[in-house]
Amino acid sequence: MTKRYVGIDLGGTNLKLGLVSADGRILHRLTTPTEADRGPDHVLERMARAVRDLSEQAGIGTADVAGVGVGAPGLVHWKAGVVLFAPNLKGWTLIPVRDTLHEKLGMLVNLENDANAAAYGEFRCGAGRDVGTLFLLTLGTGIGGGIIIDGRLFRGTTDTGAELGHIVVQHGGRLCGCGNRGCLEAYASATAVVGRFNDAVTAGEVSSLAGNDEITCKDIFDAAARGDETAARVVEQTAEYLAVGIASLMHVLNPERVVLTGGMMGAGAAFLDRVRHHVRATAFESAWKACEVRWSTLGGDAGILGAAFAAEAFDRTGQPA
């Protein structure tokens, strides 16, 4: 990639932009509030303005930017360039992101699901750069997913594949935000960790965190490390649920690498070791021996880099990444 591309990570709180070099370096950055409560038209205008501001910050004109890649949450239809539905962004149903930004900026625009973008970033210049097949799980408020097969993003028939957080790991189990029951997201996301812990305390289990109305996922992991038995049990079960989901995907895809990213990376090496332990206890030996489960190396930059590289791939080939 000799040209420069802007990658945008569209979040519910912030827009994070980066001007990306050919070797995967973010040359210039810009972060600005999304102001999602003001609706999609306002957010799209802010995105276009942010691209112009980033170009000015870098000392170049928008004419020197070859294209823009956007990683957006929710269901994304690549061919149409449309966000079909983003539950955490007010009013984001059938939003033509690609065409609107192209009209505002006059340059190539590529739209990806945010977890797909992160997966592509890790594949191009992060934890998956040396493999051809991987899947990535984003562990945060929810659980997102991206799949790379033979160096290409897997999209599915309607461009909405790889929703790995909605693999059912407990039939008839906890209610998920998607409306289904028993999804991996309902058990192993940061939100679910807090929910399952609160349920345990409500049921009478003893914890040093009892009575705290503002408990976070980090609080629970910290309490588990201090020896809080209830917190430790919830954390261990979280590792087990993640392992069930990962093992299921290993049996389907037989990947070389599984990359975990998102806010729960703060749980560190000890939690990752427990996930690996349960994967080995659940998956076929041939599957887990051929696959490394590891944390992301790009962290919060994966989405920016992946969005930019996906735009570059589209610009270069006329095909999706």
- The count of DSSP E runs of length 2 or more, i.e. the number of strands, is 13
Q: What is the typical, i.e. mean, pLDDT?
A: 94
- What is the domain tally? 2
Low-confidence stretches: none
Helices, by number, come to 10
CATH topology of the largest domain: Nucleotidyltransferase, domain 5
Largest sheet: 5 strands, mixed
The termini sit apart by 14 Å
Shape by Cα distribution: globular
Q: Topology as H/E string?
A: EEEHEEEEHEHEEEHHHHEHHEH
What is the CATH homologous superfamily assignment of the largest domain?
ATPase, nucleotide binding domain
Strand order of the largest sheet: 3-2-1-4-8
Please estimate the helix content.
Answer: 25-40%
- Name given to the CATH architecture of the largest domain: 2-Layer Sandwich
Which class best fits the helix and strand makeup? alpha/beta
Over all CA atoms, what is the radius of gyration?
20 Å
What fraction of the residues are assigned to beta strands by DSSP?
A: 15-25%
CATH class of the largest domain: Alpha Beta
